[in-house]
Amino acid sequence: MLAESSPMPRPRAAAETETPDPGRADRRPGAPQIFVHSCNADPLAVRDALAAAVARFVDQLSREEAGTLELVLAEVMNNIVEHSYGERHEGTITLSIVRDRRGLSCSVSDDGVPLPPICLDEPRLPSTDVAREHLPEGGFGWFLIRDMTRDLGYHRENGRNLLAFRLPLAAPAG
């Protein structure tokens, strides 16, 4: 989650692409705000991508909204690293975010293995009515993703995964 102090710094990875001079983005009320970032599929690059995404929109989000953005993106991108690419970490993850009147429209793409269909099923928490040592390893992240997003969709084409969703936010300050 976000630290209590100042906004997170904007680290830049070698593989990163981003909107030109995001500090000078169009700030007119209702004007779309855009962020694009590509990174290697490894945990440190994902951490840098999360910091850059939150930093890009931090002045337009409440603390709760910024925390939701960071949590959802962390779950999605870390799942890609762990499950879509596994141990190879040789792929790329591309994150695109557009801020408009409806909130944040996010898309995350990669060329790893396909997303299992069960991930998009109705949100259900795994059973926790078991002994602590028998708690399931997974399932909680996808519950959070499905619960905190709207318009969640997945498509695979030409060996590439695309996961898209919207985070509803308060209307931009005008």
Report on this structure.
The protein is α+β, with helices and mostly antiparallel strands and 174 residues long. It has one domain (32-167): 2-Layer Sandwich (Heat Shock Protein 90), CATH 3.30.565. It is built from three helices and five strands. Strands 1-2-3-5-4 form a five-stranded antiparallel sheet, with helices on one face. The protein is globular. It starts with 32 loop residues before the first strand and ends in a 7-residue tail after the last strand. Keywords: Kinase, Serine/threonine-protein kinase, Transferase.
Brief descriptors of the model:
single chain, 174 residues, Heat Shock Protein 90, five-stranded antiparallel sheet, 3 helices, 24% strand, disordered N terminus
